[in-house]
Design the sequence.
């Protein structure tokens, strides 16, 4: 079976001179997560813990001459770290509308990851990056995704239980759903978080059934977990 999380994280980082533009990193957290999810559908190469794509102004490279423009850095230790340091003209970028900015970053991410894959001789990353690029455009950059899925039995019926992540302009939301042969039977809001809160995507660990109650388990320091959801028989039968 292919491990669908061989790349654990991809993030876009922005910097103008000495100033980190953290609001842009948060704003495009969903787009970077989409790229990671799509790449992991095909990627079978060596595990990479962090992929950091840095987009910085010319001024940044002038202030920090130790980092070359369009530089690829790969470190094998600590699970694998891959980074690219690229130039971004913020004057031109800021003149684009929101859709154009999304398309531009998608094109740039594809371009620089191709450079990274060739530089590190990672053919699987090169192929998976091309797949992700095409798939992202085909789905109109839909960042919402199914984080977790399992088959459960409730009142003698086999159902699909899922946790979904939805990206909003001002944050992220998690939902729990029950489906029966593709028909939605139940949906419940679980929690929300600020854009860029990586823990939110990692805190859910399992979906189990205890009698007529579904239990969503997670990290011990997640305030809303475990969550207990009682399901009425009439919703299912």
Sequence:
């Amino acid at each position: 079976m292919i491990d669908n999380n061989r790349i654990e994280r991809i993030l876009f980082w922005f910097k103008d001179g000495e100033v980190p533009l953290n609001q842009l990193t948060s704003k495009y957290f969903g787009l970077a997560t989409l790229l990671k999810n799509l790449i992991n559908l095909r990627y079978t190469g060596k595990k990479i813990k962090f992929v950091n794509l840095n987009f910085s102004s010319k001024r940044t490279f002038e202030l920090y001459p130790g980092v070359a423009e369009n530089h690829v850095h790969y470190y094998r230790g600590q699970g694998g770290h891959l980074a690219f340091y690229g130039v971004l003209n913020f004057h031109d970028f800021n003149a684009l509308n929101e859709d154009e900015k999304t398309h531009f970053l998608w094109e740039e991410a594809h371009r620089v990851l191709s450079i990274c894959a060739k530089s590190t001789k990672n053919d699987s990353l090169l192929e998976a990056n091309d797949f992700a690029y095409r798939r992202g455009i085909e789905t109109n950059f839909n960042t919402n995704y199914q984080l977790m899925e399992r088959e459960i039995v409730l009142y003698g019926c086999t159902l699909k239980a899922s946790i979904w992540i939805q990206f909003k302009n001002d944050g992220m939301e998690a939902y729990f759903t029950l489906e029966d042969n593709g028909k939605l039977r139940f949906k419940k809001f679980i929690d929300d978080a600020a854009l860029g809160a990586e823990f939110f995507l990692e805190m859910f660990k399992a979906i189990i059934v205890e009698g007529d109650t579904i239990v969503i388990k997670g990290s011990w320091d997640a305030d809303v977990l475990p969550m207990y959801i009682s399901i009425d028989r009439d919703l299912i039968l």
About this structure: The chain has seven helices and twelve strands. Residues 6 and 46 are 7 Å apart (CA to CA).
